[in-house]
Design a protein that fits this description.
about 35% helix; 5-stranded parallel β-sheet; about 150 residues; 5 helices
């Protein structure tokens, strides 16, 4: 279970083993952090899925109004909403069978994190994949092996 691994190990596993990231709060607003983080994830070969009430297409990917509307499996639910709404999103992530939940920088809900872990999902809180990728993400052939 994820709580038996170090936080860095959980982060590394989520970054390495995931393919599809549902980005909750992602819209066409280029000034929002979600926009840039989703773009970075795409550059790293991840499929991003915008989740926003407007269901906009972002970075060439069809958007969905809710997690439940996504018609295919999601590996990671990346949460760009205020902390008071994060628990509901985390519960939805569990309900759709996601493998991990990632709360962005400043998104903190310890009760929701505990529920996610109890459901058997990996949980990352108050972190950003754009910051963690250079530190713990997959290494390509150009970079060489990590020490």
């Amino acid at each position: 279970m994820s709580h038996q691994r170090t936080e860095d190990a959980v982060i590394r596993d989520v970054l390495v083993e995931s393919e599809t990231w549902a980005v909750v709060g992602l819209s066409t607003n280029t000034t929002r952090a979600a926009y840039g983080v989703a773009q970075m994830l795409q550059r790293q070969g991840k499929r991003i899925v915008p989740v926003h009430p407007a269901a906009e297409t972002v970075h060439g990917e069809q958007g969905y109004a809710t997690l439940a509307d996504i018609p295919f499996p999601v590996d990671v639910v990346d949460v760009f909403v205020r902390s008071e709404h994060a628990g509901d999103v985390a519960d939805q992530a569990v309900a759709i069978g996601a493998k991990a939940v990632w709360f962005q920088l400043g998104v903190i809900d310890e009760d929701a994190a505990a529920r996610v872990r109890e459901a058997g999902l990996d949980m990352v809180m108050d972190r950003c994949p754009a910051i963690e990728w250079p530190r713990l993400g997959p290494v390509d052939a150009v970079e060489g092996a990590r020490p």
